[in-house]
């Protein structure tokens, strides 16, 4: 390794950011973190049972903790009964939380509505009553297709209140994707809006539901409830379609909650579709809710004075756990933003933090990269132009964050004062899995550090044998945990095969991501999805590692994705798709940057990892949740015509720009 590289690595090491206002924190130091990990390891059932009793409000206490008799279909706190909406709302009434703001909702035109816990409770009860009036019962599926806003949160909790299973579908999805989810779940009702306001336009939403239903086989949908976001008219079918004003506004503001078993499904949520056809992940009530609340306390040290802002849409697991269930179960105040954070421009993010005095900012690497690109263009987009002194914690999720972007966020947004909580988790895990404890775990840029207590994370080889530190392998979770997915909707077999493969012995939960533990610290680093590992001349290379090296050329590079391409001499060749910070570059500049990029990789990793093919374009293909779709780039690089599931792709035209190879 070159000296320069070794020095870079040293600089990248261990940053200890003290956490402000941490007097109430669960963890005082690494010793208390380790003690809790030990407790979980020694007596897992006692550990989880203690936490479930302490943190959830039960209608009926549980006496069994874990039922393994049908593993890998585990059951937790099986004979206990509770209601998720009670744990998020009723529980706070009569406490100092009752009149506290639960949600500051900011519309695209900058209008702010602040909803207290009391008001939220009443709105949820009204909607729950309306659903009941339409005959929706416990166990029925209700599909939610709403723009990002407080109404979506109300809809989720209203379902939970009557024991209906919600299926939130991101409002950017097409009628075809919606149809697939309607059919798969057999939803009896849809909650939608007449339109959604995004990027300066009004887009019809209710019409999309009609188009989906028109595709056939959706006779089970008996009710469509339409929230009127604007005065724009919408197509109506009498007897099936109702406006909020008609059906909801007149309802009583009290609705008795339906007490459900701990194992009653709370929701079905389809994964992002980064690696293939989306999977309908099923989460149940108690275990999921417990982890949503605990991780708010552990990963975010959430305090009564905090203002939490998670930019995720409720259409994704991050929105479920860290917009709806986590913050509300923890009694937090949060910000919810309509539309996209970058519209009308990047300054909206900084203005929002400033306006609401946000303390905890949780976002995705894709947004961070876009913010970096914008900040380089004009001062009004730079975080330095705003007062962000309220921030005490920064966090991201969704993709690996490279050390360069990590540092920018940490230094330019957090001014080196705010711990950076890189959270690794998945739809299937319900909540955070590997995450630093803020103010406690020393940080390493680009590493999600260590598992939370109770998460038995191990790296194994292809036969399920543990790998030593320093050697990459498959990330698995070796013991069940309460927030784990229970199955894929009506597809137990696919669940078993996808997550508990026989090759690994059938008992390890396979995350589908590669990882390596640092030789000195034991910290975890996610090296990319298993499907994305490249094999160049017999060397296994993680896409993330090569991408991180390319991103270090940060004066030029805004975003990059690496895939493998079959090659006659090396088996596979590295192909890099690069988006530059400046769009007005010529042939000559492109050639020069391509050369610099190759040198960078040769220096940082090895000449073997140098991209053989470099392509420049203006945007990478992403899922609607903002993740790079490498599977698509892979088939594009191979010159294959698209034959994949692209229902979750944001903009199919972006690939056209990458045709020239350098
Ligand atoms: P699909 O399963 O349909 O391909 P998806 O995996 O993108 O979609 P999600 O469940 O939303 O759907 O995303 C989880 C995945 O996101 C993880 O498996 C991992 O690949 C990636 N990820 C999430 N957080 C991090 C992180 N902090 N660091 C690295 N990767 C992350
Ligand atoms: Mg996945």
Automatic annotation (TrEMBL):
Name of the protein in its database record: Acetate--CoA ligase
Gene3D superfamilies: 3.30.300.30, N-terminal domain of ligase-like (3.40.50.12780)
Species name: Saccharibacter floricola DSM 15669
Residues covered by the AMP-binding enzyme C-terminal domain: 545-627
Record carries keyword Cell membrane: no
Record's keyword terms, sorted: Acetylation, ATP-binding, Ligase, Nucleotide-binding
Stretches assigned to the Acetyl-coenzyme A synthetase N-terminal domain: 33-88
Pfam families associated with the record: ACAS_N (PF16177), AMP-binding (PF00501), AMP-binding_C (PF13193)
Similarity section: Belongs to the ATP-dependent AMP-binding enzyme family.
Enzyme Commission number(s) of this protein: 6.2.1.1
Origin superkingdom: Bacteria
Keyword Ribosomal protein set for record: no
Residue ranges of domain AMP-dependent synthetase/ligase in the record: 99-482
């Amino acid at each position: 390794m070159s000296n320069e590289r070794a020095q870079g690595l040293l600089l990248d090491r261990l940053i200890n950011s003290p956490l402000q206002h941490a007097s109430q924190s669960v963890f005082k130091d690494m010793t208390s973190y380790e003690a809790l990990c030990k407790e979980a390891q020694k007596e897992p059932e006692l550990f989880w049972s203690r936490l479930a009793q302490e943190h959830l409000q039960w209608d009926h206490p549980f006496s069994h903790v874990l039922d393994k008799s049908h593993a890998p279909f585990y059951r937790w706190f099986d004979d206990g009964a509770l209601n998720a909406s009670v744990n998020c709302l009723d529980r706070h009434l009569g406490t100092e939380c009752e009149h506290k703001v639960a949600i500051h909702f900011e519309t695209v035109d900058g209008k702010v509505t602040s909803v207290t816990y009391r008001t939220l409770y009443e709105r949820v009860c009204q909607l729950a009553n309306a659903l009941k009036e339409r005959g929706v019962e416990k166990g029925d599926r209700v599909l939610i297709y709403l723009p990002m806003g407080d109404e979506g949160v109300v809809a989720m909790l209203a379902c939970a209140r009557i024991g209906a299973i919600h299926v939130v579908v991101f409002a950017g999805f097409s009628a075809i994707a919606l149809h697939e989810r309607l059919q798969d779940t057999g939803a009896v009702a849809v909650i939608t809006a007449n339109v959604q306001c995004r990027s300066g336009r009004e887009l019809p939403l209710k019409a999309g539901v009609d188009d989906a239903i028109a595709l056939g086989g959706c006779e089970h949908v008996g009710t469509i409830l339409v929230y009127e976001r604007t005065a724009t008219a919408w197509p109506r079918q009498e007897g099936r379609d109702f406006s909020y004003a008609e059906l909801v506004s007149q309802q009583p503001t009290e609705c008795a909650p339906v007490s459900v078993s701990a194992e009653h499904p709370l929701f079905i949520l389809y994964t992002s579709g980064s690696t293939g056809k989306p999977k309908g992940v099923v989460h149940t009530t108690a275990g999921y809710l417990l982890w949503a609340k605990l991780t708010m306390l552990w990963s975010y040290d959430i305090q009564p004075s905090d203002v939490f802002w998670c930019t995720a849409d409720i259409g994704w697991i991050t929105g479920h756990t860290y917009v709806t269930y986590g913050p509300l179960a923890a009694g937090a105040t949060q910000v919810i933003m309509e539309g996209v954070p970058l519209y009308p421009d990047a300054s909206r993010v900084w203005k929002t933090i400033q306006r609401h005095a946000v303390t905890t900012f949780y976002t995705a690497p894709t947004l961070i990269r876009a913010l970096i690109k914008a900040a380089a263009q004009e001062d009004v987009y730079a975080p330095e132009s705003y007062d962000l002194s309220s921030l005490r914690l920064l966090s991201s999720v969704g993709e690996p964050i490279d050390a360069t972007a990590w540092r920018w966020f940490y230094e330019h947004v957090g001014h080196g004062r705010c711990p950076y909580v890189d959270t690794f988790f998945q739809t299937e895990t319900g909540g955070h899995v590997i995450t630093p404890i803020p103010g406690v775990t020393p940080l390493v840029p680009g590493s999600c550090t260590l598992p939370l207590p109770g998460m038995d994370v191990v790296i194994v080889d292809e036969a399920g044998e543990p790998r030593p530190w320093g050697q990459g392998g498959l990330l698995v979770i070796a013991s069940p945990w309460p927030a784990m997915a229970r199955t894929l909707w009506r597809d137990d077999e696919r669940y078993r095969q996808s997550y508990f493969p026989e090759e690994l012995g059938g008992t390890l939960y396979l995350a589908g991501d590669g990882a390596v533990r640092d030789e000195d610290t034991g910290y975890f680093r996610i090296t990319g999805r298993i499907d994305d590992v490249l094999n160049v001349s017999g060397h296994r290379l993680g896409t993330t590692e090569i991408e991180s090296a390319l991103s270090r050329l940060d004066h030029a590079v805004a975003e990059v994705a690496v895939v493998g391409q079959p090659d006659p001499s090396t088996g596979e060749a590295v192909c890099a798709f690069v988006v530059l910070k400046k769009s007005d570059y010529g042939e000559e500049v492109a050639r020069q940057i391509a050369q610099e990029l190759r040198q960078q990789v040769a220096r940082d990793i090895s000449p073997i990892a140098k991209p053989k093919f470099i392509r420049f374009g203006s945007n990478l293909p992403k899922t609607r949740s903002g993740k790079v779709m490498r599977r698509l780039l892979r088939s594009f690089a191979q010159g294959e015509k698209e034959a994949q599931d692209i229902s979750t792709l944001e903009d199919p035209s972006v690939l056209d720009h990458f045709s020239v190879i350098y």
